[in-house]
Amino acid sequence: MEILMAFVKAFAVGGLICVIGQILIDVFKLTPAHTLCSLVVAGALLSAFNIYPILVDFAGAGATTPISSFGNSLLTGACEGARENGFWGLFSGLYKSASSGIAAAVVFAFAAAVFFRPKG
Fold first, then answer.
1. Distance (Å, rounded) from C-alpha 79 to C-alpha 42?
2. Would 51 disulfide with which of 46, 69, 71, 106, CB 3.0-4.6 Å?
3. How far is CA 66 from the centre of its chain?
4. Could you tell me if 52 and 67 are in contact, meaning their C-beta atoms sit under 8 angstroms apart?
5. Which stretches within the chain are classed as H helix?
6. Does the pTM exceed 0.70?
């Protein structure tokens, strides 16, 4: 029963984040790029006010899988780097926390470009 509740919480929170993104696209007529940036910034703002870590504790993968968690990870890494190394630690912490996501995006984009024909 406990695992079922974990799935329900993850589905509800992840679904809510996706609904917010869809509302930004449909109602406010934002482009997908603007929506993506809005969700990343929202994740960073929620992290700045210490709300996103509470959401992660509550929903698990429902909060760590959507793009808003990228903003959380960027801000968390930058703050940790700044605490350890001062001003320049902001940048090194940012890259340290985001490097796996950026590397995965580059590798998968390259694989998609190799295996699929672009339209046009």
1. 17
2. 46
3. 5
4. no
5. 2-26, 32-48, 52-59, 61-64, 68-85, 87-115
6. yes
Residue 56, CA distances (Å) to 13, 33, 43, 52, 108 in order? 9, 24, 11, 6, 26
| Residue in this structure with the two tokens 């700044």, named with its chain if needed | 82
Token couple for 13: 């929170």
Using CA atoms of 110, 76, 78, 17 in order, give the dihedral in degrees to the nearest 10. Answer: 50
Q: Mean per-residue pLDDT for 11-39? A: 97
Give Cα separations from 53 to 21, 61, 91, 112 (angstroms). 20, 12, 21, 33
52-87 per-position pLDDT tens digit: 999 999 999 999 999 999 999 999 999 999 999 999
CA quadruple 42, 43, 44, 46: dihedral sign: positive
- Count CB atoms within 10 A of the CB of residue 104: 10
Give the pLDDT score at 100.
85
pLDDT of 101: 82
Per-residue tokens: 96: 């340290």
